[in-house]
Amino acid sequence: MGVWDNDAIPCNNEYYCRSFMRKQLLLIIISVTIAVLIFEIILRLVGFSFPYYMRIDPVTGFSLRPEAEGYWQDEGKAHFKVNHDGFRDKLYSKEKADGVIRVAVLGDSYTEARHVNAKNAYWSIMENELNTCAGKEIEVLNFGMSGFSTAQEYLLLKHIVWDYQPDIVLLSFLSGNDVRENSKALNNVHNIPYFFLDGSELKLDESFKDTKEFKSSQKFLYQGSHLIVNNFRTMQMINKIKISARNQRLMKELGINKEDEDAKRGDPGLDTEIYSDPPAPEWEEAWRITEEIIKKMNEEVKSHNSKFVIVTLTNGVQVKPENKADLNYPERRIGKLGESINVPVITLAPKFLTYAKTNNTYLHGFDDSGEGHWNVEGNRLAGELIAKEMCNILY
Hints:
Blueprint: H1 14-45, E1 54-57, E2 61-64, E3 69-72, E4 78-81, E5 100-106, H2 109-112, H3 122-133, E6 137-142, H4 150-159, E7 168-173, H5 175-181, H6 184-187, E8 194-198, E9 201-205, H7 212-217, H8 220-231, H9 233-254, H10 258-266, H11 281-303, E10 307-312, H12 329-340, E11 345-347, H13 349-359, H14 376-394
Parallel strand pairs: 5-6, 5-7, 7-10, 10-11
Antiparallel strand pairs: 1-2, 3-4, 8-9
Helix pairs in contact: 3-14, 4-11, 5-11, 8-9
């Protein structure tokens, strides 16, 4: 017999039976609530967090969620906090102090750098180094966003970054996926804006605003559910389990081998086609779109009387100590583009490779794999090299 079996309830009338059942229900609710609270406390004590770090954005498709905070452990291990304005950096006033030179850094996950603590990110190292070589105070503001394409970075610059009055805009270009992500045909992602070429004219495609995902994000239910998940670790655990199960189901449906997927996840520089010279037609089109976006960005920077600098970041395969192949076609192409529009280009790959071979060390990855994002040493080296070149360019 169960709790709700009338024969098991010691009562002689309907009122008493209902009262008894209400008490039993209340007892169950209290027990479950206490269990959830205990589980919530345990999750917080062990440092578990899996909030929604990103939000839907009407300009760039998505962006970091202001005040998001947690501990990133999927690759590397670091405390991750987004400031009130929605960037992974300390909070800066939009009004620049007299005598200060501001550098705005645009980029993707390498620049957001959630895999290392903020003090170890290359833009923090760069700021420290620049302040030792310059005669003025330098502020380096991080506008990096995981998953951003060059197109999204341009839109962020145009609509947001100028509010902070930067004197210099540094574009951190990652050939490993930036070229693909600038092509709607190659990228096959539908929740972001793209640029496309209409003849020689660059035009903006904002059809992502017509997607079901974008429209649902404007509804109260969507926003409320995200608010609940972001504030309760128990819900974050449930959400992580749901996402993991969904990803495994999709991998199974698509016939993707887990080991292959893990290998891909390790290194963002998956697009080996970027090293081809000449590129295949669809990749040449992606390169042309990318170059036109960068030209557009240069025009935007000049219109604000600021200085534009490009730095080409490294893909893991380019800078492994054992690498003997010439994988610098992207660097040469961006270098030529810089020359054609009179923009300084800082190229990291050759110096990274020399350092890796000399010291027999990996600058990418956190498990001596040489794949994935920059580790602490990779960030340190990048920050120092970029700062050195910036000092030569600016002073």
